Each structure stands twice: as C-alpha cells, then as structure tokens.
Amino acid sequence: EKPSWSQTPVSRDDFVYLPTAKYAIKSPYLPSAMSNAGNYIISLGDMCRWLGEKAEEFGVEIYPGFAVSEDIIVDNKGRMVAVKIRDQGVAKDGHQKANYEQGVKIYGKQIILAEGARGSLSLEVAKRYNLNAGRCPSKFSLGVKEVWKVSPEVSDPGHVTHTVGFPMDYMSYGGGFIYHMDDNLVHLGYVTGLGYTNTNMSPYMELQKYKTHDMLRHLLEGGKCVGYGARVINTGSGYQALPSVAFPGGMLVGDAAGFLNVLKIKGTHTAMKTGMLAAESAVADISDGAKPGYVSSRYEHAMKDSWVYKELYVIYVRNIHPAFKTGLFSGLGYGAFWLLSKGREPWTFKWSKDDAARTRKEKKCKAIDYPKPDGSKLTFDLTDQLPLTGVDHEADQPSHLKIKPGMEKFPKEVSFAQYEGPEQRFCPAKVYEYDDEGKLTIHAQNCIHCKTCSIKTPGHFIQWTVPEGGGGPQYGSM
C-alpha cells in the first residue's frame, strides 16, 4: 500500500553556494551520492503516524504517553533485562500527588533502543557497557526548521535545495535546506554543527539570518510561517565513532548509534534498515534458544555485512565531516577529492575533542551580527515561534533538566563567567536564562527535547532526563 503522503516526488535537485547575502552560485554537478532522484519529500511526523497504525494492525503494542526512564534494569550478572516507565504524578517538590502511579518494568529478551540522537537511556547504556571504548567522540548538529505557506507563484513542488556558505562563518560546519511540498508548503531550515568554537553563536538566529538572503527573501515574501521545531542529529560519527551496537541484553539502532549519512544529511533509511536487522537478528537468536541478556553478535555481523555499513563507513562518509575541521573550503576541497577516491582513501581522520570542548571562552570570540527580528514578515523572536511547536509539559513535576551533582556552582563560575552562558543562545526554546549576576534559571516547560544542552553545555553540567510521559513538543506535519 502506497501512503497518501508520498505524493511529492523530487523533481529538481540543487546544491548552491551562498557567498554573501545577495549572491547564489549553483553547482553545475551533483554527485550521485548526494542526488535525491527517485526520492519523495514527506513529513516524517506523518510517516511515523502511518507506520504506527500499520504496526498496530500487525499486533504490535504501542504505548504513547509513557516515557522510559534512564534506569537500567539488570539481572544478577549485570545484563540488561528490562526498562522502567517513568513514575507519573510526582510533584515538583518530590511528593506523590493524588494521581501518582509508579512506573512499571517491561521485560524483554532483547531491548532494542531507537531513541534517536543523544538518547538519554542509550547514553547511560553506552556508559555502563563501555560501548564507546577506543572510539572518537560523536559529533552532532542542531537542525532548526520552519514550515511556511508560500504564494502559489513561487511554489515548486518537488524542488529540493541544499546550501552552504551564508550566513555561517567559513570556519564552522553547517548548511541550509529548502524542500517544496504540495499545497504551497515549504520546509526550510538550517543545520549548525555543534562543534562551532564561537560561544556567541545561536543556531536559531543563524536560521533567521539565513532567511534574509535574497533567494529566501523572494521565496518567503507574502508567505506565513506555520510550523517551527528543532532537533539534534548525529552528523559525524562515521566509522571512527561508531559504538558497539550490541550489548548484554540489547541493541542500538538508527541515530541512537549514529547511523546517519552526513553526505546525504539523511538517516531515515538507515534507521529503518538497522531496525529491521535488529528485529531479524533477535528472532533468529531467540529461535536458536538465546536467553535474556545475551549479546547479539548476529546483529553486529549483519550490520557490517549490510549496505548500511558500506554506505556510511566503508565507501562514503567517514572522512567528510572531519574534513571541515579547518573550514568550509578545505571541506569542499576534500569533497572534490572524494569524487575521485569514492571514500577508498587508505587513511581515516580522527579527533579527540567532543563538541562542548571546542567552545572558546568569550574573551577569545568575536560578536556575531544577527538581524533584529521584524516579528511578522520574515524573521522572528524565539518566544513568538515557540507556540508553533505545541510544547506542553505538566507544570507540577520535577524538572527533567538537572544540574549534575557536584556541579551546582558550575553555571555561574564557569559557564557564565568564562563563556557568557552559551546555553541561553544555543537552546532553540529559550529554556536557559541568566540574570546579570550569573544566576541560571531553567524554564524546563519550554523544552522541545532537542538535546543540545546535553551536548554543548560547557563541562556537560546539564543532565537531560525524560519528563513525565506525554510532555514535550506536539509537532504536526514537521
């Protein structure tokens, strides 16, 4: 059955360099690895809802509104055998309210984690079982996105554009995207690599500045922004940072492990395939008599024998993101070399710093000139966009954004004093706010679960945990 929403086939595919806010240079050649020929432009939210319905038709039980906590339930040999649903009905001060319900444990012979990038439970599992031993730190990017209803005169269903250059400085990693869908809808956004060094950078404001380019200004003139959202993606794991994907009692699939093709900026296809491989491996293992808590070497082998491993780690992308470490032009230059090598170069770039460690102290950084939001036509204040996410959390509950034990003084004495509190700029939901004295206020109710704070905060002093089930952004057709 062909879903009704897969009706916008890609009809035109452009890669454009934006040297300034006025000029655009279209690449005359698009490598096949970057081509979207044969693809469809869809809403991932619509796709997931449709897949959920189909899964339930096959007897799969889905429990929306129940969040899995970061607790790892193990047996007497330390093997993961269950997950625990987060307690519900706990007040902000910790007491149990009238509607309190203790979270139940759900057991399984294999726990397959598909949390996406920087999943909170996946992170704890990786630490407990040392899944990242000998690997480079993962690299992440924050994608900030808007959906616009544009004039019919400029709507071009099926037209896909990816850009590099303006407004990003040449030493940072990032780029824009513009997807034309049916019904005069345009999905556009900007992806900012979180390894940027300037503490004054704001990924949200990079998107606002991006829209001031003449190419986008012309597209959006007379239109209306109808959607907003943000989420981190894993844009630099590569072979160098791929964790062990099987552990005692479970497996990692999709972006929980880093299966995103950074060259294509796509991970849906690899997430689906690794999910299928994990399911097939689990069925085969259990049919062979495997007991709860086993390590599925079958899944590890199946993944490395699949086209996923070939696409991401052998042929295509292991050196693409690292090549941008010394700037845009060196990255593009390496991309040109890649056209000849096809990823078969005998070397592999490595790195030791995570994204947070790359941030420079404020005194070493230049101010960034961002446009003042016009508030209604093209650029917006973040507080005006937040309602478009539909974000909603139970007000009377403990904050799911916690300062780690022993780091209570870190926000004021380090993050604010040395870095001018970068979390108040990189957060795309205005969760973090410092006063003039350096006191940090956390507006957890604004959180749209992008996970940036668990990646980019100096010293990693924020621990992101799941809120009460059902809380968070309520995206429509994003």
Structure description:
The chain is of the alpha+beta class and 478 residues long. It has a domain at 63-137 and 238-341: FAD/NAD(P)-binding domain. 24% of the residues lie in helices and 21% in strands. The chain is built from 13 helices and 19 strands. It has helices spanning 44-57, 120-128, 203-210, 214-220, 238-241, 268-287, 297-304, 307-315, 328-341, 382-385, 410-419, 423-426, 453-456; strands spanning 12-18, 25-26, 68-74, 80-85, 88-90, 96-101, 105-107, 111-113, 140-149, 159-165, 174-180, 185-193, 224-234, 246-247, 250-252, 401-403, 432-434, 440-442, 462-464. The strands form six sheets. Strands 2-1-10-11-12-9-13 form a seven-stranded mixed beta sheet, covered by helices on one side. A hairpin with an 8-residue loop joins strand 10 and strand 11. The radius of gyration is 22 Å and the shape is globular. The model has no long low-confidence stretch (mean pLDDT 91).
Biggest pleated sheet: 7 strands, mixed
Strand ordering within the main sheet: 2-1-10-11-12-9-13
Task: Output the CATH topology of the domain at 63-137 and 238-341.
Answer: FAD/NAD(P)-binding domain
CATH superfamily of the domain at 63-137 and 238-341: FAD/NAD(P)-binding domain
Total beta-strand segments: 19
Shape: globular
What's the helix count? 13
Q: What top-tier CATH class of the domain at 63-137 and 238-341 fits best?
A: Alpha Beta
**CA radius of gyration:** 22 Å
Estimated share of beta-strand residues: 15-25%
Helicity level, as a percent range? Answer: 10-25%
Q: What's the end-to-end separation, in Å?
A: 23 Å
The assigned structural class equals alpha+beta
